[in-house]
Design goal:
This protein has 11 helices and 9 strands. By secondary structure, it is α/β, with parallel strands linked by helices. The radius of gyration is 17 Å and the shape is globular.
Length: 275
C-alpha cells in the first residue's frame, strides 16, 4: 500500500466529513478527524442534513445512540450522498441487540448504497445472515476471529462484499478488510483499546476521511485507517505505561499519535498481509 499517497491526500485537500454519529463519542470523532487532517461537521436534524451533505465530501453514519428522530435524517443524508456520488460509511453499532437497531440497519442497507460497512464480527453476521449474537455493542466471544477460522471468515466477508457492493471491514483482535476479490488481514492494535469508549466510533470517522480523500482506492484507504488506528493504539499504550496513567489519558494519547502519524512511521509499524 502507498501509505504516503493515502495519508497525504487527506492533508492536501482536507475533506469535510458529515457525521450522524454516537452522542457518547461525538467529540472524540471530531478530534480524530482534525488529527488526521480532515474537518468534522455534526448535523442530524432532518431540516438540514441534505443541505449539509451537499457541502461535504463524505458521510459517516453511526447508530450507536440510535433514536427515532434521526433515522429519517440518516436516510435522507445517505440518499443525497448517493446522488452526489459521495462515499458513505456505515457503523452498525449494536445491530442485533434490539429490534430497532436491527430493523433500522436493514432499512439503511435497503435505501442507501454504502461504500464501507465497518463493525465487529457479530454485527456483520447480523446484517449478512440475520443471526443475533451481539452482546450490547460488543462482539460475542463465540464469533471471535482466530487463525483457525480466518480463511472461513475471509470467504464470508468477500461474499458479503459481493452482495452489498461495499467494502466490508471487521475489527477485533484480528482485523479484516474485504472486497469481493481481495482481503487485507491486519494485526495491529492493543487489547486495552477495548477499555476506551469510542475507539470504534473514532475508527469509522477515520475511515470516512481516508476514503473521502482516496475515492478511487477505497479498499486500501479503509485498510490504512484501520492500520493507523491499531498502530496508534500500540504507541499510545506505551505512553500509558511510561506515564503511569489510565484509560482516559489513553484516549488522548491515541488521538495525539494519529496527529503525529507519518507515512514512514506507518510503513515501519504496519503489520498486515494480503489474502
Amino acid at each position: 500500500m502507498n501509505f504516503t499517497e493515502l495519508l497525504n491526500n487527506v492533508k492536501a485537500t482536507p475533506p469535510l466529513i458529515h457525521n450522524i454519529t454516537n452522542y457518547v463519542t461525538v467529540n472524540d470523532c471530531a478530534n480524530i478527524l482534525l488529527a488526521i487532517g480532515a474537518a468534522p461537521i455534526m448535523a442530524d436534524d432532518i431540516e438540514e442534513v441534505e443541505e449539509i451533505t451537499t457541502i461535504c465530501s463524505a458521510l459517516n453514519i453511526n447508530i450507536g445512540t440510535l433514536n427515532t428522530r434521526t433515522i429519517k435524517s440518516m436516510i435522507y443524508a445517505g440518499i443525497k450522498s448517493n446522488e452526489l456520488n459521495h462515499p458513505v460509511i456505515l457503523d452498525p453499532v449494536g445491530a442485533g441487540a434490539s429490534k430497532l437497531r436491527t430493523q433500522t440497519t436493514k432499512e439503511l442497507l435497503n435505501k442507501i448504497n454504502f461504500t464501507v460497512i465497518r463493525g465487529n464480527i457479530s454485527e456483520i453476521k447480523t446484517l449478512a445472515m440475520g443471526s443475533n449474537t451481539t452482546l450490547g455493542v460488543d462482539a460475542n466471544e463465540l464469533d471471535t476471529v482466530t487463525d483457525d477460522n480466518l480463511e472461513e471468515t475471509i470467504t464470508f466477508l468477500k461474499s458479503y462484499s459481493q452482495k452489498t457492493k461495499s467494502i466490508i471491514a471487521i475489527t477485533g483482535a484480528i482485523d479484516i478488510i474485504a472486497s469481493e476479490h481481495k482481503a487485507i488481514v491486519v494485526r495491529n492494535g492493543h487489547p486495552e483499546m477495548s477499555k476506551v469508549t469510542g475507539t470504534g466510533c473514532m475508527l469509522s470517522a477515520l475511515i470516512t476521511a481516508l476514503v473521502a480523500a482516496n475515492p478511487k482506492d477505497t479498499l486500501h484507504a479503509t485498510a490504512t485507517a484501520i492500520i493507523s488506528m491499531g498502530l496508534c493504539g500500540e504507541l499510545g499504550y506505551e505512553s500509558v505505561i511510561a506515564n503511569n496513567t489510565g484509560n482516559s489519558s489513553y484516549r488522548n494519547y491515541i488521538i495525539d499519535e494519529i496527529y503525529k502519524l507519518t507515512p514512514d512511521s506507518l510503513h515501519k509499524g504496519a503489520r498486515y498481509e494480503i489474502r
